[in-house]
Design goal:
Elements: H1 16-144, H2 166-171, E1 177-178, E2 196-197
Antiparallel strand pairs: 1-2
């Protein structure tokens, strides 16, 4: 092999070593850029997920508030209905109480009127009986003659002797005297005010 004389040929700048270093640096830079881009994409995804979650939470909260407001309105309506029903029931009860009181007062008044009517009928019956008895006595005296009245004044025509008291008249067989029927009634005192004196 013949060796050429003279200087060695010059070597290029991009040697194998330099090429390897450059490739390594480029790969590092490319990885950094790609990593940075990936990190940005992750941040955007996280922000989007956060926004979406917040929106969903706000929507759920709004739905819950709306449901609660609807329940409150329903309860308020139920309370209003219950209050109206209670008011109506109280008014009905008051009306029934008034009717019961009026019926009681009417029944009491009717009972008192019935008692008064019975008392008046009894009194009228007693007066009628006394009048009948007095008339019968007067008739018997007029037909059978008058009794002796030693303690009384002599009787005028058609009347009994006038005694000092009803007791004396009764002892001598005279009485009863009815107001408005027997003139002898005016001679004596009607102490019980029943229209009859010298009852026997």
């Amino acid at each position: 092999m013949t060796r050429r004389n003279g200087p060695a040929p010059a070597r290029g700048f991009w040697t194998r070593r330099r090429t390897g270093v450059a490739a390594a640096v480029g790969a590092f830079l490319l990885g950094t850029v790609v990593g940075t881009a990936g990190a940005g994409a992750d941040d955007e995804a996280l922000a989007a997920a956060t926004t979406e979650g917040r929106t969903a939470a706000e929507a759920a909260a709004e739905d819950a508030l709306a449901a609660a407001a609807e329940q409150v309105e329903t309860l308020e309506a139920q309370v209003a209905d219950a209050t109206e029903d209670a008011t109506a029931a109280a008014a009905d009860l008051a009306a029934l109480e008034q009717e019961a009181q009026a019926a009681t007062e009417t029944a009491v008044a009717e009972a008192l009127a019935a008692q008064q009517a019975e008392a008046e009928l009894a009194q009228a019956a007693a007066v009628e009986e006394a009048v009948t008895a007095a008339l019968a006595t007067a008739a018997s005296r007029s037909t059978g003659g008058s009794g002796s009245g030693s303690s009384g004044s002599s009787a005028s025509s058609g009347t009994d002797p006038h005694f000092g008291t009803c007791g004396e008249a009764n002892d001598n067989g005279y009485g009863d005297y009815v107001s408005g029927v027997d003139p002898e009634y005016d001679w004596y005192t009607d102490r019980d005010g029943d229209g009859i004196v010298c009852e026997r």
